[in-house]
Amino acid sequence: MSLSTKTQLDPIKMSRSLLKWYDRSNRDMPWRRNPLPWWVWVSEIMLQQTRVDSVIGYFNRFIERYPSPQSLAESSLDELMGYWAGLGYYARARNLHKAANQVVDLHGGRVPNDPEKFRALAGVGRYTCAAVQSIAFGEPMAVLDGNVIRVLSRLERIDKNPKLATVKDQFWTLADALLDHERAGDFNQAMMELGATVCTPKKPKCLLCPLMDMCRARQEIDPETLPIRVPKKKRPVIQMVAGLSTAEDDSIWLVRRPEKGLLGGLWSLPMVQGDTHDALETLNLNPQDACQTVRHGFTHQIWDISTYPCEGKPICANFDEVRAFKVSEIKTLGLGGPSLKALRVCGIDLPRRRGAG
User: Fold this and answer.
1) Hey, is 301 helix, strand or coil?
2) Number of domains in the chain
3) In the chain, which residue ranges form alpha helices assigned H by DSSP?
4) Same domain, residue pair 172 and 123
5) 2 inside domain
6) Co-location of 262 and 339 in the same domain
7) Considering 174, 197, 225, which residue would you say is the last residue of a domain?
8) Among 81, 130, 187, 286, which residue's beta carbon has the most beta carbons within 10 A?
């Protein structure tokens, strides 16, 4: 199908079938039981690039500590990172902290019930704005995420690459045309729920789908072939060396990474790219020969980390701060995943991520 043509779907029939299914089948989530604007906003930020079952534990701990934008604005970014560590994509946390301050300064501490004002906050893009405004306030704004794109691609048999900007814009137009304005928030959640639980990337459960009879992909081709997938580039493997050095009281020297860039704002073992422990000498560390190795994968690259016991206090170099922490302090610190794994493999007793469920 060409996205420039008018949809063949009946929006009223589609909405009726979809919402009937959603009303009886939607998963129980804390932000659905209590759809306060702040709760919905936090959940949407956490759910970006992260699965629901991973988010719920983090969300509950986060809301317990930060029940309002005011409470987050009053918190330090360092403390926030301790609650976010393990969710990844840390720019989300930094932007949410900045946006909470904007809400306090510009909107009296209340999440604005105005799409234009809400969109102006740090880290709020088109999707987040539509999701929060429709679910929390009933604004008739359609959402478009990977789940919705998959559902729409199969319903209309769209064989165009949704990652292309022009194609994605047309998907937005289609989502707008199908939106149920009377129950916009429920409709949006139903579309995302359908994509997450029934219209899945592999082995879709077509016989359980409330839109089965409307789906062109099911009628004409193998639905699993849509949406069009572009082959992923192979992730490069980067060799990293880290130093495990202690102060006189046996606390462990850590460095804070710059806010911009990978693992921005998080604490880390002093770590540099390199094939041998000699690279640690650039951080004023004297490494020993024995080491422990661990692998950590990011979306776009893989780190193979060799951690060496060292002597000396690391210098700041390209880091924002150097500080020694006791193990008891590290347990609640905003520590990057690669360093957490490295410390564990070196025998440091650290728990699994707080709130991970």
Assistant:
1) coil
2) 2
3) 11-25, 30-33, 37-47, 52-65, 69-73, 77-84, 91-107, 115-119, 126-137, 146-156, 165-178, 184-197, 216-220, 327-330, 337-345
4) yes
5) no
6) yes
7) 225
8) 130
Whether 143 is in a domain gets the answer yes
Phi and psi of 307, rounded to 5°?
-105, 125
Looking at the DSSP bridge assignments, the partners of residue 325 are 252
Angle, in degrees to the nearest 10, between helices 126-137 and 184-197: 120
> For position 327, which CATH number holds?
3.90.79.10
Nearest to 81, CA basis, from 260, 333, 262 = 333
Classify the phi-psi angles of 157: left when phi > 0, otherwise alpha if psi is within -120 to 50, otherwise beta: left
pTM to 2 decimal places: 0.91
- The tens digit of pLDDT for each residue in 189-244 reads 999 999 999 999 999 999 999 999 999 999 999 999 999 988 888 999 999 999 99
Which of 44, 139, 156, 193 is catalytic? The answer is 44
Per the structure, the complete domain to which residue 321 belongs is given by 237-345
Q: Does 28 lie in the same domain as 76?
A: yes
Please indicate whether residue 44 is annotated as part of the active site.
yes
Sheet of 267-268: strands edge to edge?
Answer: 267-268, 252-256, 321-325
What is the dihedral angle through the alpha carbons of 166, 148, 91, 230, rounded to the nearest 10 degrees? -60
Q: What is the pLDDT of residues 3-47, one digit of tens each?
A: 544 678 999 999 999 999 999 999 999 999 999 999 999 999 999
What pairs with residue 295 in β-bridges? 304
Claim to verify: residue 213 and residue 252 sit in the same structural domain: no
Residue 323, in any domain of the structure: yes
